[in-house]
Amino acid sequence: MSAKIFTWVLMVVMLPIQYARADESQTKTTSLRDIQKQATLLKRRGKSLSQAEVLTKIAPLKNALAFANLTGAPLNRLYTNASDSLAMLCAGLDLPVTDRFEKPTEIEKKSNSYRVRIACLTPADRTPNAAAAHRAAELLLWYQRWFADQMAQNGHGKMTFSYESETGSSWPRVHNIRLPRPSVYYRTNEPGQGDKVYSRVVTAAKDVGIPVEESGQVWILFIDMQEILPDGKVVGLHRQGGGKTFHTGATVCDTGTLGELSLTALTTDNLYHGMVVPSLGRYPLKRGVSFPPSRGNTVGTVVSSNLGSWLHELGHCFLLTHDFRNDDNAAGNLMGNGLRGFRAWLYPEKFQNEYTHLSANTSNLLRLNRFFRPQEEFKDTKAPSIEQAKFSTQSVEGLLVCSVSIRDDDELAYVMLMNNDCVVASQDVSGKNAQVELRFWRYEIGDNRWQLRVFDRSGNVRILPGTAFVPATSKRAAHPYVTCPKMRLKAGEPLSVSAEKTKDPDGDSSALRYAWDFEGDGKLDTEFSPRPHVSVTYPVAGVNSLQCHVMDGDGTTAVSSTIRIQVEQ
Q1: Residue 308: pLDDT band by 50, 70, 90 thresholds?
Q2: Can you tell me the distance from the alpha carbon of 347 to that of 368, in angstroms, rounded to the nearest whole number?
Q3: What is the pLDDT of residues 149-185, one digit of tens each?
Q4: What is the pLDDT of residue 10?
Q5: Cβ distance 566 to 543 under 8 Å?
Q6: By C-alpha distance, which of 290, 327, 330 is closest to 307?
Q7: Helix (H) or strand (E) holding 203
Q8: Which residues contact 132 (CB under 8 A, 6 or more apart)?
Q9: What is the pLDDT of residues 184-241, one digit of tens each?
Q10: Which residues pair with 567 in a beta bridge?
Q11: How confident is the model at residue 245 (pLDDT cuts 50, 70, 90)?
């Protein structure tokens, strides 16, 4: 069934208040071409000007580039030239850093001041990286655009997060702070130590005064701790984010190749093997050693993976969870392995077989998130109650069932079930009391770790974990997998989708039969057929919900997770 569209006042908004911050008198006269020309000229004249004079002249250029992002300027060659010229100019400057976090005087603590903030942390043995700090700010602009684009595609309007900006500007503020210990203290060379790294960096950030985990703030903590060893192995690459509630979160990310980032790098097919990257060290990269095989072998695939992984961890800060349904490497969900296909959002025509999308479930969660509702006031701070939760351990027609009884003093909104760290089922709810049955096909024979999450209209969440043992006598339904690389199309344009990657875990996958629901209304629009491929044409504009129903040889049916298709005139 298609998700119910909430009609709360101010729920669907334009891009946040950064629009109002842009200095329109400046941006009306500073085009992308002007940014490129002025940045190039300033770089040439740099030696004849003091850094203070250069910074004064750079400020309106950064604001103009931010305004171009906020107003949806195409990320074409004109933008690329302006972006790269400004980045090269900033890279040549000395980056001032402080030993303590300094709270901007204009930051006021209000109930509706939910925003994303950035800090670039420089360990004692590292040199402040002006290029990385600049790109971190621009990266946040791209991420804001990406979320707005994906939320609109899912039928929620251009909802996205707000961020802390520089005084009198729309350019994201970056807090550059020196840490007291060397980089080796914060990183680890051993696998499976991610939580240790995260804890050390977050603790260090708190020690220098950064209000990490303070309500109303999500912090992206970039830390320069990566290093390449003589054998080509890169240590200190770490990306991990999380949120305890919808009200706060933090992510720890190595700066990686952030200082060398450019839009041009995303499109290159040059192999990275043998390259020397200054921000990593003096030794050359080695294929199969420096980066995991999942990131590919080219500069473009590695950079795309970096951009997607940083965004993925930001998603965790918004309390988003892994979703590996309809997901593959560089072609799927942001909160799955599809994160590595981020470059296809920037260059959809060049990378037609790659994509990073926001799943329907994830978008449903973000419509409730307070960081995506910057103009709303929130007075309700009490989480919903889970009165009862029963998790079946014996399958019924190939599916497991989680039965829950929930309530909220105000208004319930959404219930979601995870199993083994992946979303398996979700449902819209309303009213103050609800009885819900969540049926799902993604589970394992043996031990299962489940987690129930219940959300109310104000973005409060109640989390209940548990375990269940599923006996080997349970017959599992098929695991539907739908490939749909194009989720935005014109009215009348044919769309080809496929479920050929669907597997029957306990039977013969060649015996599977497929039927399709193109409207998400629970009514099948095709008969069951052994053919996993289908083509559909949507004649009118709107957002449609697509699902595939898969029947195995025993007649048991499973339904794929929803894919939303945005149709434009």
Answers
A1: very high
A2: 30
A3: 999 999 999 999 999 999 999 999 999 999 999 999 9
A4: 32
A5: yes
A6: 330
A7: helix 194-207
A8: 120, 222, 224, 255, 258, 259, 279
A9: 999 976 767 788 999 999 999 999 999 998 889 999 999 999 999 999 999 998 889 8
A10: 489, 542
A11: low
**Range list of β-strands (E), 321-370:** 331-333, 355-357
Which strands, in side-by-side order, build the sheet including 385-391?
385-391, 400-407, 433-440
Task: State both tokens at 443.
Answer: 């589970």
CA angle 270, 276, 278 (to 5 degrees): 120
Burial group, residue 86, by CB count within 10 angstroms (0-12, 13-18, 19+) = buried
The rounded distance, in Å, linking the Cα atoms of 172 and 62 is 9
Among residues 139, 7, 146, which one has the least CA distance to residue 72? 146
Whether 346 shows a pLDDT value over 50: the answer reads: yes
Token readout for 374 is: 């910057």
| Interval 340-344 mean pLDDT | 95
Share above pLDDT 90 across residues of the chain, in percent, rounded to a whole number: 74
Whole-model pTM: value is 0.91
The Cα–Cα gap between 315 and 454 comes to 18
- Cα 513 to the center of its chain, rounded Å: 34
How far is C-alpha 532 from the geometric centre of its chain's CA atoms?
A: 30
Structure tokens at 292: 């995991």
Distance of CA 514 to the CA centre of its chain: 31
User: What's the DSSP call for residue 267?
Assistant: T
Sign of the alpha-carbon dihedral angle for 470, 471, 476, 480: positive
Exposure letters 370-398 (e unless 16+ CB within 10 A, then b) = bbbbbebebeeeebbebeebebbeebeeb
Amino acid letter, 405: S
Exposure string of 153-188, with b = 16+ CB inside 10 Å and e = fewer, is bbbbebbbbbbbbbeebbbbbbbbbebeeebebbbb
**Cα–Cα distance for residue pair 316/243, rounded to 1 Å:** 6
Question: Which is nearest to 255 in space by CA: 90, 129, 101?
Answer: 129
Burial of 59 (0-12, 13-18, 19+ CB in 10 A): middle
Among 397, 403, 471, 482, CA closest to 441: 397
Residue 62 has pLDDT above 90, yes or no: yes
